[in-house]
Write a structure and sequence with these properties.
With 192 residues, the chain is of the alpha/beta class. The chain has a single domain, classed as Rossmann fold (3-Layer(aba) Sandwich). 36% of the residues lie in helices and 20% in strands. The protein contains 6 helices and 7 strands. The protein has a 7-stranded mixed sheet, with helices on both faces. α1 crosses α5 and α5 runs antiparallel to α6. The longest helix is centred in the C-terminal third of the chain and has 24 residues.
Length: 192
């Protein structure tokens, strides 16, 4: 891996309608990371809220970001942020909801398919088809019964999930920090 800046993006949708939904878990993790840094996100002209800081004293430079647009158009601001902050593809970490993992499970991976996730699909498209970026998959589980998957991810967490959410978000933030500081393999060993 190169030694440049990192970009950590939390996927989600904008506005109060989507706040607290499973689909916005990536943005919630970014909020936790921003809070740990004692920072605040600022609006940019490219449609994202961003903060650039060091991860710990003398640590790597990290840009934390959430798009101000809808998830299915996340790729354009991600590409613009990578260009502006001179971030290499191998220093992009995308945090997103994952229905193929039970609630509370975390998986870190590099590359692979988008698995039907429109936010990832948009990012891959704006990276010229490059799929080798890092992903932190935050498990939100599959819907029960006949509930549609899109209704499930756009729905709010169940009460039992809300009780566990702070600890889950904290573990996701720990995993993201570990990827930057220790590398993917060490972070996978700790998180899985």
């Amino acid at each position: 891996m190169t030694s440049g800046s990192w970009l950590i993006v939390g996927l989600g949708n904008p506005g109060d309608k989507y706040r607290g939904t499973r689909h916005n878990i990536g943005q919630v993790v970014i909020d936790e990371l921003v809070s740990r840094m004692g920072a605040t996100l600022s609006r940019t002209k490219i449609g994202a809220r961003v903060v650039a800081a060091r991860l710990g004293v003398g640590g790597p430079r990290v840009v934390l970001a959430v798009s101000e647009g809808y998830m299915n158009v996340s790729g354009k601001p991600v590409r613009a942020l990578m260009d502006y902050f001179d971030v290499d593809d191998d220093h992009l970490l995308v945090i997103h909801d994952e229905v193929d993992l039970d609630f509370g499970r975390i998986k870190l991976k590099q590359g692979g398919s988008e698995g039907g996730h429109n936010g990832l699909r948009s990012i891959t498209q704006h990276l010229g088809g490059e799929r080798d970026y890092l992903r932190l998959r935050a498990g939100v589980g599959r819907p029960s019964g006949r509930t549609d998957t899109s209704d499930h991810v756009l729905g709010r967490f169940a009460s039992a999930e809300r009780e566990q959410l702070p600890e889950f978000v904290s573990r996701c933030a720990d995993a993201a920090e570990s990827v930057v500081v220790e590398g993917l393999v060490a972070a996978q060993n700790a998180a899985h």
